[in-house]
Amino acid sequence: MAEPLIDVWDVETFDAELRQRLVEKAELLRGYHTTARENLIQRELSDRTGPYPDNPFAGDHIELAETLMAVMNQRTIRAWHYTRLTDAEADRLRQDGVVLPSSQSIRARLDAQVAAGTFTPEIADALHAASPFQRGQADIRSGRFWMVSHPRDIRDGGVELLLGNWGGEGVYFWLSDPEHQALVASIGRARVLEIAAPLSTSRHAFSAAEAVMAAFARSIGCDPGAKAFDLYVGEPLPPEAVLTIHTEGDPAFERIGNGYPARYIDADRGRWDAIEAQIARRRR
Questions:
Q1: What mean pLDDT comes out for the span 175-194?
Q2: Mean pLDDT within 244-267
Q3: Beta strand residue intervals within 154-220, DSSP E
Q4: pLDDT confidence of 105, banded at 50, 70, 90?
Q5: C-alpha closest to that of 1 among 166, 193, 196, 150
Q6: CB atoms within 10 A of CB 91
Q7: pTM score
């Protein structure tokens, strides 16, 4: 895997080359974000009938993101995967690494639960038949292991179903039988995986570039927001890519995105409230 390991939200983890490229563009980033915030405020203060104000730094900002896209494509970032696993599945993940989802992998997981006595072969067949992989979504779901770039609080509504239902969207997404829904919610325990995700195996280097640009901009006093993004890898990952598995009940699990990792701050939390307060002061 490519090194070093980067948190796209934490400038302290950026390697020397990446940091230097950002330092060289500090004035561009400061100009872009200062103008963007002022444009937003002016728009909110207006009657909103006119065109949105131009940002003269926008073209150079996009060009920088495109340049850094190639740089980030050579980097590995720490990403976060929210799921529900049995203890045996967690052990297998540590031993074998990340296997990409497919109709076959879903079938294997169901068969393993039949062998463990969790449910009957008939229920396994019904769950498999209801899977999105069997109902027209195999092409868009197969071969993609999805994660998020920034740690999200386990109480976030965006991850609630992932943590609450075994098998991922490939099993629970279209279940309509209440008994089957209750069954998959009872299997395993909620887990959050920290994954070393090489961006060369993804299609998300541009989003990663935007995120590191935003992180650096925050370090010099700007307020661009988090620039968090979803990403997937399109190749299996070796066991060493599974950095940590946090399990429901562990102290760190309860603090993910809200105290863990220690340096993580949700740059979107309270941001719009601060902007609205600034707008209100301008209106006085």
A1: 97
A2: 97
A3: 189-198
A4: very high
A5: 196
A6: 12
A7: 0.94
